[in-house]
Specification:
Elements: E1 2-11, E2 14-24, H1 26-45
Antiparallel strand pairs: 1-2
Length: 51
């Protein structure tokens, strides 16, 4: 999901400040949820096991 927006501050039809914002939300949230589940699993198992 991408959220986009634009804010413009103008006086007497003269644009003084323009701010454009874009944020990528979905992929960050999914990565965090998967990471948290993995962390909980590691704690139950007593840590990570290699091999």
């Amino acid at each position: 999901m991408v959220i986009a927006g634009e804010i413009t501050l103008s006086i007497a039809d003269i644009d003084l400040v323009r701010i454009s914002l874009r944020a990528l939300i979905a992929s960050v949230r999914v990565e965090n949820e998967e990471g948290w589940e993995g962390d909980r699993h590691d704690r139950r198992e007593g840590g990570r096991h290699d091999g």
